[in-house]
Specification:
This protein is mainly alpha-helical. Helix content is 69%, strand content 2%. It has helices at 20-38, 42-62, 65-71, 76-91, 95-123, 132-150, 160-187, 193-223; strands at 238-239, 246-247. A two-stranded antiparallel ribbon has the order 1-2. A hairpin with a 6-residue loop joins strand 1 and strand 2. The chain is globular, with a radius of gyration of 21 Å.
Length: 248
Amino acid sequence: MNATMFQRLFKLTDASGVYWSLWAELRFYLLIAILVIVGVTYRRVLVFGGVWLAAVVIAGQLENPVVDEIVMPKYAPYFVAGMALYLIHKHGNAWLPWLYVLAGYGLSWESALGRVHSRIDAAGFKNMPVTDVGVIVTITLIFAATALVALGLVRLRPSRLLTALGGTTYPLYLFHSVIAVALIPLLVGDLPPWAVVTITTLTAVVVSYLVYSFAERPIQRLLKPRRSPQTTSAPVVQVEKGVGAITL
């Protein structure tokens, strides 16, 4: 069932701890599919984000598990803020997208603090010494860094190294905990903590890069749509000014 990525819908345990995000991602894609069917324009994305943020506030009052599954109050602030920052990046500064970013930032505090508190309650503060201030500072830095990128104030020149590092990030997310569980018990005791961290981190990065190079990229090339040799015309892109509609 984990291979379908729908295991959480059926209340089944994740095969790996990091798989929790897959169910959130799938629900996001389903919601976006509705927007795509209606038609993606600048204004409709803003309406979509505004309705979603309002639904988050309402869901917090209802505390209904079915509504929570659909609205995703724990994750929606991040999704909406990300969408708003992309609009700022593509269409320039406007007050309403920034309002969504600020709303997402504020709502993300409650979401992140609640999640961290639940883990501290389960593991104990000694095993997870994360303070509320640390959580808020982390959220603030992430939002600030993303905003700087959206505004074009932080740019990196494209390079093969950056492309490889970017491709490695998702395999690293999926495999880092598995590698840590396998390596750390073998290394602890014989090596100082900094060496354990260094070896485990480098191993995770190397394994993730190998997965990216020899699994992900070949599969992507295999699944990439191929055009007919007779098709020589380039796609036409038309942007409607003032509306933000983009048609291909």
